[in-house]
Amino acid sequence: MMLLKNYSDCLSLALIPLGVWSIVANILLYFPNGDSMYASNNQLTNYVWYFEGICFGGIMMLIVAIVLLLVDYYQCCIPSCGGRKNRGMNCSRLGSPVFALLGVMFAGYSLTISSLALVQGPYCRTGSGWEYPFQNTAGGYLNQYSSWSACLEPINVVAWNVILFSLLITLSGLQVIICLAKAIYDVCTICNGTHSVMIQVNNALTCYL
C-alpha cells in the first residue's frame, strides 16, 4: 500500500517540472533568436497568443499538481456505521480524480494548440511580405528542410518554432498520460475503499441479525 502511495506522489510531483518547462518553452516562443522586437510588433504566429504553455500547460498544471499533492498528504477519514473511523477510504481523495481530469483537459488544450501551430508553421517575412508560407502544406514542410529558407525574417524562425512547439507537444502529452494514470489510480482507490466499507457493513448486519 505504501508503494502505491509513493507511486501516486511521484505522478503528482512529475507534473511540476513538466509545468515549469512548458512555461519556459512558451515564453521562448515570444523571443525568436532572443529578439523581443517581433513580439512587440505582433509578428509572431497567432497560436503563440493562446498561452497554451504558460497558462494551461504551466500555471494551471502547477495548481493541479499542488492540489493533488495536498490531497495525498492530508487524508481525512470518514466514520463507519459503528462509530469507528474507516481508513480504507479517504473523503479527501474524492476530489482527486476530478482535479486529475482537469489536468487532462488543460494538458489536452496545450497539446491541441501546439499541434495546430506546428502544422500551420511560423509567421515570417518572405519575398512577398509577412505571411504563413507553410499554412497550406498540412505540415509537409517539416520534412522539406530546403523550403525553410523561404522565411527571411526572423532568422531561423522555422527551426525555432518547430523545436519549441515539438517540446510543448511532448510535455503536454506526458501531462495527459500522468493525469490519466493519476485519475485511474484514485478511482481504483476509492472503489477499493467503498468495497471495504460495504464488507464491514454486511459483516455488522450479519452479526446483529
UniProtKB/TrEMBL annotation:
KW Membrane (keyword) present: yes
Domain of life: Eukaryota
Pfam families the UniProt entry points to: L6_membrane
Topology with respect to the bilayer: Multi-pass membrane protein
InterPro entries reported for this sequence: L6_membrane
GO cellular-component term (any): membrane
Residue ranges crossing the lipid bilayer per the database entry: 49-73, 94-119, 158-180
Compartment(s) where it occurs, according to its Swiss-Prot or TrEMBL record: Membrane
UniProt entry keywords in alphabetical sequence: Membrane, Transmembrane, Transmembrane helix
Membership in a protein family: Belongs to the L6 tetraspanin family.
Protein name: Transmembrane 4 L six family member 18
Record organism: Leptobrachium leishanense
